[in-house]
Amino acid sequence: MAWASLFIAGLLEVVWATFMKKSEGFTLLVPSVVTLVAMAAGFLLLASAMKQLPLGTAYMVWTGIGAIGAFAVGIAFLGEAVSPMRLLAAGLIAAGLLLMKLAEG
């Protein structure tokens, strides 16, 4: 259950990062509210996962899911640049997440 909570918390990080971008510096109400709600929910799920998972593992996986997810959303929906170097960087983050998960068993 801890891994499921951590995964959802990571997805919520993607949500809040995306809506923070859309909030235009917290000047738009709806994206700002979505940002804050997703942040709070993500932190609660992260805290729940940390009851069973080591700090380093939980935090790395949470931020990694958020980083890769935000990267993908930026490319797919916000017209951000994609390049071989950026794809390699995202791939290295994903490889690190996989290795961390395998190390935990």
Q: What class would the helix/strand composition place it in?
A: mainly alpha
Q: Give the termini separation.
A: 14 Å
Domain count: 1
Q: Hey, roughly how much beta strand do the residues contain?
A: under 5%
- Biggest beta sheet attributes: none
Compute the gyration radius: what is it?
14 Å
Kindly report the average pLDDT value. 95
Can you characterise this structure?
The protein is mainly alpha-helical and 105 residues long. It has helices at residues 2-22, 29-50, 55-78, 84-104. α1 runs antiparallel to α2 and α1 crosses α3.
Question: How would you concisely characterize the structure shown here?
Answer:
The radius of gyration is 14 Å and the shape is flat. The chain has helices at residues 2-22, 29-50, 55-78, 84-104.
Supply the key terms.
mainly alpha; 105 residues; 0% strand; single chain
Could you outline the blueprint of secondary structure elements for this entry?
Layout: H1 2-22, H2 29-50, H3 55-78, H4 84-104
